[in-house]
Amino acid sequence: MDLIMTNQQKRIHPHKFTLWVVICSMVMMFAGLTSAYIIKRNQANWLTFELPVIFWYSSAIIILSSFTMMISKRAFAEREMGKYRRMLAITTLLGITFIVLQAIGFYQLSGSGITLTRNVAFSFLYVLVGLHALHVIGGVITLTVMLVRVFSRKSRNYSIVPVEMMSMYWHFVDLLWIYLFVFLLMIR
Amino acid sequence: MSNEAILHDQHFGTHDAPHAHEHHDHESFITKYVFSQDHKMISKQFLTTGIIWAIIGGLFSVIFRLQLGYPDSTFPWLQDLLGHWAKGGKLDPEFYYSLVTMHGTILVFFVLTAGLSGTFANFLIPLQIGARDMASPFLNMLSYWFFFTASMVMLSSLFVQTGPASGGWTIYPPLSALGEASEGSKIGMDLWLVSMALFIVSTLLGGLNYISTILNMRTKGMSMTRMPLTIWALFFTAILGVLSFPVLLSGAILLLFDRNLGTSFYLSDIVINGKILPNEGGSPILFQHLFWFLGHPEVYIIVLPAMGMVSEIMAINSRKPIFGYMAMVGSLFAITSLAFLVWAHHMFVSGLNPFLGSFFVLLTLLIAVPSAIKVFNWLTTLWRGNIRFTPGMLFAIGFVSMFISGGLTGIFLGNSALDIHLHDTYFIVAHFHIVMGVAGFFGMFAGLYHWFPKMYGRYMNNTLAYIHFWVTLIGAYLIFWPMHYEGLAGMPRRYYDFSSWESFKMFAGLNEFISFVSIIVFAAQLLFVVNFFYSIFKGRKVTTQNPWGATSLEWTTPIRPGHGNWLGEIPEVYRWPYDYGKDGRDFIPQTEPVGEHESKH
Known about the structure:
The structure holds two protein chains of two kinds.
Chain A: H1 14-41, H2 54-77, H3 81-111, H4 120-151, H5 161-186
Helix pairs in contact in A: 1-4, 1-5, 2-3, 2-5, 3-4, 4-5
Chain B: H1 3-9, H2 29-34, H3 39-69, H4 76-82, H5 93-129, H6 137-157, H7 187-216, H8 229-260, E1 271-272, E2 275-276, H9 284-318, H10 325-339, H11 354-366, H12 368-382, H13 391-413, H14 416-422, H15 426-456, H16 462-488, H17 508-538, E3 580-582, E4 585-587
Helix pairs in contact in B: 3-5, 3-6, 3-17, 5-6, 5-7, 5-8, 5-9, 5-15, 6-7, 7-8, 8-9, 8-10, 9-10, 9-13, 9-15, 10-12, 12-13, 13-15, 13-16, 15-16, 16-17
């Protein structure tokens, strides 16, 4: 009964903690989908597919964007606002590039006969990659909002919490893509 | 980081936002009552919306009970109410299914999830752990408005030409996936799915806020083991919700794809109206797995908050410490963990591998252990207590009664062999209504009667409350107890008319009796609604800060707390919340430092 948290300073900021819980629930959603995928794959009528080459490039882009996000966060912590702004802008651009590449990938897939409705395997591919892309789009929108705020003269913000949260989320969608990509490469 | 700092930090750097406490003169009607960020107001919004939904959902059950109890009669007023769904005063069979589906959906999700957790998690968490508000009041507000939007979409589905969803609250495909399959699988089903997606977002926003508030915003001295059991229960409820609702969302997304984009996740080899559908390779069982991975934790999402509140109310009104605090917490944890491992017991007859089924039987029956621990602890809390039979206490005791009765039939149903006979019969209906539905409602009523003085600064009328309690308790048993017999005799659920079945004709009288009682019980609930709304405005005023003589923090706030809850500093906590009848004192508040010669509990 004597477990008292006296050192309150060391506690994680509640908003950051909240984001961790959000990430857990997103993980559950993708875990549900990928386990459904595995079960379906072991049943009849499953066609295998080749992932478009462009997904390799998009993977490289999103990994790179994780690095720029990291640098950006460090710059903010060291109060190098110019560097922070530049890196945040680059991250946003890389995020947009990623989405464009995914869209091209989808275009190529449907061109090569892998359409949404032809086989349940293809449907799964579209749903998994599409849902991930939606999560990245959400991140890009947030990044854009942050960028607009950074470049506007009105607000002065010196709290690192939003930057840290943005970076957490961005690394999460990055890791999620790596997971999905490896998953789709290994199990198809 | 301290509470104060977080609330100040809320609007990241800008200081134009309305401040947490003490001065809120500039609050307009809109920010105070509509787009409020005060957890207490949000809780009341959830409660009011939940009550309205409960009336609608309850009314639906009365309407379909009329059909079941009086299959040969016609009720002309039904045509006035329902139009072409009750031509000549006789319920349309298609619409009967819509009513059953909507009754389940509304009661399970909108009333007993949003109405119960939404109300009490929002109201009690900050007050009982000593916080000015939730970790993110803004997300909290969003949570309510997503719920409100979900409600509006669901409500609108009641008014479309082809009627609301009608495939049962579990919306199993292929029935729910094909618009040609039934009237309710047309636009009504799409609205159902959109509404549920919004509802899931609302639950997630709420749940993650509850978790992070409980873990991060407790006042000084409020260690985890000094939290009231309500908070523990709401904490585990939120974890269940956050981990299981996303899986339902993924199931619903795939169903939306199947319905609208021509995919075949759940569809294969289907002939409908003599037409062969092109869908191939899907599996409807997949949906059942995804659905029940949420669906089973969902029943604990409903019953855990009720358990927590009952523990708290029972200790207060027995003037005794709760028996086995750590065992209570441990059993909550055990139930939460097991909840994720038993979903396939809803699918014993779906063609599930019997070998796999036996694991699910074992894990299901294991839940009896923590459940029994809780029941024994409640009974031993009552044992030799100095019991005050307040309406809240009566409902708490009623909850335990319901939980025992319904829990015992759960042991029958957890066995996969018995389930072959009992599945989809009225035995199931009786089981889950008693253990989840009625017990959940009893927990909710207990909480409402108990915390009403804190919510509105007035008391509810006791006479009406006692009538409400006895009619509901006796009525619930009269309605659901006979259903066990019907179910054992093989009477299937979801049938529209039993009079044409030779085997079930003998139950005509019993069905009529059940319907008759359910109308009376519904009327008693309206009595509660009247009492509730009347007492908000005209009830007897609360004059003391701590009317129940309780130890927990919410009773240290002013009688009508403003946004920010405490006027000065947030009080510090020195002890657990169950110091009743200790060292010759009736109760010792949590805020009182431990004396030198005090005995250990």
